Amino acid sequence: MMSHKIAIVDDHLLFTGALEDMVNNFEGYEVIFRAENGKDFIEKLKESEEQPEIVLLDLNMPIMDGFETLDWIKINQPKLKVLILSMNDDELNIIKAVRNGANGYLLKNTTPQNLKLALDTSIESGFYHSELVSNALLHSVNAKVQKPFGELKEQEIKFLKLVCTELTYKEIADEMCLSPKTIDGYRQVLFDKLNVKSRVGLVLFAMHQKIID
Fold first, then answer.
1. Contacts from 118-125 at CB under 8 Å and sequence distance 24+?
2. Does 156 share its domain with 111?
3. Which helix (H) or strand (E) holds 8?
């Protein structure tokens, strides 16, 4: 059985050693390398014969921190999924991470079961929106004026509903009988209209506006 490849980026070596053992004990997962910061991650990524599908990324690291690393990944490796694994439960950091493209955010005191669920869900759906993330983003939405749901066009609403499913963007394009390039356009328009930067942000907006249940 093929294993999903995982990379860990965190400067706490005792923690990452234990985390590697934990992930390797999950059925269907394998840690292919650990890195101590973003710079170290980029170097090991270039040297590695195998490429990770998910990066477990800390935020507070020397030399190149988690936010800088996340920015680099989203520009240079946009298909690579990133789960933030941090001690920091500050809402501003959670919102910043998710809006900058993180596929999920967990605290380091999460249970092994929740970590496994986050990995499974990220592989299957492309993102993992825990209660922690949902609460932080919904508070953010409530704290400022959002463009109302009524300003969205019919096709944008249809696209938004499909974004909330497990379909890939290519499958959404097929479902809507549109080209992938057109779908990319819808996605960017909604990112700009709703002031979000990730699929998670779109899903949470749809939930908040009751576009989906």
1. 118/83, 119/4, 119/6, 119/23, 119/26, 119/29, 119/54, 119/83, 122/54, 122/81, 122/83, 123/4, 123/53, 123/54, 123/81, 124/166, 125/166
2. no
3. strand 4-9
Angle at 32 between CA 93 and CA 80, to 5 degrees: 45
pTM over the 0.70 mark: no
pLDDT digits 0-9 by tens, 111-140 = 999 999 999 988 888 888 766 665 655 555
Asked whether residue 40 is domain-assigned, the answer is yes
Number of domains in the chain: 2
Structural domain harbouring 122: 4-128
Q: What angle do CA 4, 10, 16 make, to 5 degrees?
A: 65
- Long-range contacts from 167-172, C-beta under 8 angstroms, 24+ separation: 168/126
